[in-house]
Design brief:
This protein is an alpha/beta fold. Helix content is about 40%, strand content about 15%. It has 14 helices and 13 strands. Strands 3-2-1-4-5-6-7 form a 7-stranded parallel β-sheet, with helices on both faces. β12, α10 and β13 form a beta-alpha-beta unit. The radius of gyration is 21 Å and the shape is globular. The mean pLDDT is about 90.
């Protein structure tokens, strides 16, 4: 039996592509282990699948001053030692990393043992964690054609992002029943990401009186971001986070308003849902969501409204325009060629784990 170690964490976006690979890996008969942080979101998500999970120490490598910069390097060193011990114990044939800082010790430990590692970069430009890992990787998968110019040519593979098969198997009626909404008005699904998005939440709630005249809203607002004053509001439902029923909410939605995290927008693309993207601003991030969003805009998949330009008027105009022109967006998304990320990545995993001589 071939063995694989999956790693990645910090946000749901660093975990869900690994979840998407699980059915294919299990079907192929792999023994799977997951290495993440002690108590990150990945721990809860992976333990729910039954895959054995090991936590290691994790520290964030920052490019700005923070007192934790003095302690986190020691956490990374501890995590590296823990990863060495776990990889020696499990002896995997291959490691697949979805990124995040918890993955760095695992990838470096795999290099120590000469275990081939495949990493996946979701964003347009590689983040710091993956930039550290790239020299140790055998192959680097990416979502955007533009990303190829930032990666070593001999390692780069354009795959798209693995999408959980169940997301494509939602049922609209089940979604309507779950939310208590009707089929009489179009439904907007608002997604702020696993950690929530205060700016998006605020903008949508400010606009609700006007939105609810013509639309209904399903709002996934993030942990701790429920607005109790809006509970029971006709045509509006809110959830902190949704797991299994999410596929049905996607099926019920006529369009989506979302942040522009790479995995989220790739799911939107796979679902062929017209969408308005409100990327995280450059002042609050390294600008990756802006690059992701504008790439989708150039390809005709999305309407982009930058956070600095969000007002009641601009957001309502973007939603109305996107809904009215929804067929144009759907047609563009139907022409996308990045539809078999799981198959492409599985081929890479198999080539390194099962046919190592062919990769030498």
């Amino acid at each position: 039996m071939k063995k694989i170690v999956l790693t990645g964490g910090g946000t749901a976006g660093h975990v869900t592509p690994n979840l998407a690979l699980l059915p294919s890996l299990l079907q192929r008969g792999y023994e799977i282990h997951y290495i993440g942080s002690y108590n990150g979101i990945e721990k809860k998500l992976i333990e729910g699948t039954g895959v054995p999970y090991d936590g290691i120490s994790s520290g964030k490598l920052r490019r700005y001053f923070d007192l934790k910069n003095f302690s986190d390097p020691f956490r990374v060193i501890k995590g590296y030692r823990e990863a060495l011990r776990l990889l020696k114990k499990y002896r995997p044939d291959v490691v697949f990393s979805k990124g995040g800082f918890v993955a760095v010790p695992v990838v470096l430990a795999a290099k120590h043992y000469k275990i081939p590692t495949i990493i996946h970069e979701s964003d347009m430009t590689p983040g710091l964690a993956n930039r550290i890992c790239i020299p140790s990787a055998a192959k680097i998968c990416c979502n955007f054609p533009e990303t190829l110019e930032y990666l070593p040519k001999e390692k780069a593979v354009l795959t798209g992002s693995p999408i959980r098969t169940e997301l494509l198997q939602g049922d609209r009626l089940t979604g309507l029943q779950y939310t208590g909404l009707s089929a009489e008005k179009p439904i907007i699904l608002v997604i702020g990401g696993s950690l929530g998005a205060v700016a998006v939440n605020t903008a949508i709630r400010s606009l609700l009186p006007k939105l609810l005249q013509n639309y209904q809203v399903i709002h996934i607002c993030g942990k701790g971001h429920l607005d109790e004053s809006l509970i029971g509001q006709s045509g509006y439902v809110q959830y902190e986070y949704v797991m299994a029923p999410l596929r049905h909410l996607f099926a019920a939605a006529d369009m989506i308003v979302s942040r522009a995290g790479a995995n989220s927008i790739c799911e939107i693309l796979a679902l062929r849902k017209p969408n308005v993207l409100i990327p995280l601003s450059a002042s609050a991030s390294r600008g990756d969501q802006l690059l992701n969003a504008h790439s989708f805009e150039r390809q005709g998949y999305s309407c982009v409204l930058e956070e600095e330009n969000v007002t009641d008027e601009t957001l309502l105009a973007a939603i109305r325009s996107t809904y009215e022109n929804r067929q144009k967006y759907i047609q563009a998304m139907n022409q996308s060629t990045q539809n078999d990320a799981i198959g492409t990545i599985m081929d890479l995993i198999i080539s390194f784990a099962e046919n190592p001589k062919e990769t030498q």
